[in-house]
């Protein structure tokens, strides 16, 4: 199962190394990782997407992460009400006569063209990872030259429904 | 580089206070009395400060960094205080890697200071530069590289705090040379610990304690598994009180030996791969397993499928990550061992009705005791351990190396008291035993300290003979000399079709002459009579002694749970 885990960490040298090293050593697959500063100086937030077989392993990884001295908080937010976003840049092979066709495809995704050259154009899209996947599939027939994705970042929504309202609500399976 | 050279020059004239002087002050403030060290370029400023401290802090010069860090581990095991290690950058630091890993696996508090090249050249592959931070990240509880002299007081304070609280472990502090050589402009402010992410839980949850007490009352076949956590928590007395109050039988792990008196009727001895029949069958048949401070290591549990299959499992551990890691746990209790035991003792719940269980276990003990047979072709190593036990009254501090002799020592050197047993459990580090004994003797000068070592492992760190001579540390070294890497030989004989591949030591030094060349008394003994005659006198000798004891090569450690087998599938439980 895929889980979204957020870490609040002290912004000290080596902390990213400790976290990724630990995951590697305990054989957890990191699908994506994103890191950045938070509203508090000296505190950073990491968002990990990891592939984990079962609850027991999930509990183990959470505990191991929590044990790190510079890790302040570990939360598995997968089953909470959350806002999830990722940004992707997609370079598509395209001559000028295809440009408006591509525009028509990306428009419903609220993506935009941010760079144009003779042979290619670059699309920028933000959204949930599935939405990005979907656009990539639609653009593939045109010839994708390069993709750069930031990895997912997420946090809790302001309103958290009661547990029974949540039921099967989940953003990534 | 230039700046650094200038600073060094400056220091040799009558010196203003440097980062290194500050470090020595900070160590004294932490109550450090002994440094386990080895000098080199990157720590020259620190050694200059040690010189200037004029003996107000004791420094022991070892002959190899691995030896000195194992000695620091032995010291930590006996005192409960962090062992303090100083090594130079590059090769000095990398020579420590085995010992740091060993301390991490066995939860021993160490504070390790390594020199580093000056900040201006870090990352340039400078002479004797190694990426010690990256190398030690997975093998330390935490590590620091000092980036400014003003951080030094806080970092040293935090390092000692982290190493010695919660689940103890090694902390490394990497000090660039320009920091230790740097001149202190003003006396830094008193440091405060700033560790919002580190708050170990030490008090148990009362609801879980109640749940455990109720489960004890209802159990028919309860058993306690006592690990090193009981020793780290200094909770042996509380463990004994709890076990006796409810008549609960106790199995100890390899590292937990001594946590519960071996001569108590409730003691089942050691569990695991070479544990007793009664201990292992108790772990198999139990309906309530109370683990206190053990981590369900695979050498204890055997194949997890067959481990305590009928049991409700309670686990008391100060490290939450250990609970449920290997064995599903119904009653998790994150706590210091002593705090939890004290709470358990005051619970009013009934004692279990487990007379029948105790009777069964008693029968197992009678029916399947540890055994060995005397053979005509050489001294029996098990008997040798019993002889050492006898001559030391079972009261010595015993360290071991790794291999067959370690298991025989664990089986036959039984303890009445805690904190007398020092062995490398988790990492199984050959070369550990002898230097660990040096650390133990430094920590406890009045105690008899015996290093029970193999002929293989002793040769990995024997250069420290210089240290026991130089300091007149009366360590007694018993080489259980079977002319082989015995444990490897045993596995090859039993599990690899008797193909004895590269595990016989065809040539060996003359250990007696070797000892003598270091100025130490040595003796070779190859039969029982001589051992009985000379051992008392050798142990009475007021100085270090090395005894090269020749024992049967073919002897094997039994009982044994073969790898992959369940805890109830022991072989060699009875003489064949
Ligand atoms: C540093 C290291 N290398 C290799 C091993 C693997 N090993 C485990 S026991 C053993 C044999 C030890 O021989 P010896 O010290 O003579 O002890 P014995 O088993 O004969 O009592 C070996 C090689 C180890 N544990 N540690
Ligand atoms: Mg041997």
TrEMBL record, chain A:
Keywords: Amino-acid biosynthesis, Branched-chain amino acid biosynthesis, Transferase. One of its GO terms (biological process) is L-valine biosynthetic process. GO terms for cellular component: cytosol. Pathway: Amino-acid biosynthesis; L-valine biosynthesis; L-valine from pyruvate: step 1/4; Amino-acid biosynthesis; L-isoleucine biosynthesis; L-isoleucine from 2-oxobutanoate: step 1/4. Residues 4-79 form the ACT domain. Its EC number is 2.2.1.6. NCBIfam families: acolac_sm, PRK11895.1. This is Acetolactate synthase small subunit.
UniProtKB/TrEMBL annotation, chain B:
GO terms for molecular function: acetolactate synthase activity; flavin adenine dinucleotide binding; magnesium ion binding; thiamine pyrophosphate binding. InterPro entries: Acetolactate_synth_lsu, AHAS_TPP, DHS-like_NAD/FAD-binding_dom, THDP-binding, Thiamin_PyroP_enz_cen_dom, Thiamin_PyroP_enz_TPP-bd_dom, TPP-bd_CS, TPP_enz. It is an enzyme of class 2 (transferase). GO terms for cellular component: acetolactate synthase complex. This is Acetolactate synthase. Pathway: Amino-acid biosynthesis; L-isoleucine biosynthesis; L-isoleucine from 2-oxobutanoate: step 1/4; Amino-acid biosynthesis; L-valine biosynthesis; L-valine from pyruvate: step 1/4. Its cofactor is Mg(2+); thiamine diphosphate. GO terms for biological process: isoleucine biosynthetic process; L-valine biosynthetic process. Keywords: Amino-acid biosynthesis, Branched-chain amino acid biosynthesis, FAD, Flavoprotein, Magnesium, Metal-binding, Thiamine pyrophosphate, Transferase. Its EC number is 2.2.1.6. It comes from Neobacillus vireti LMG 21834.
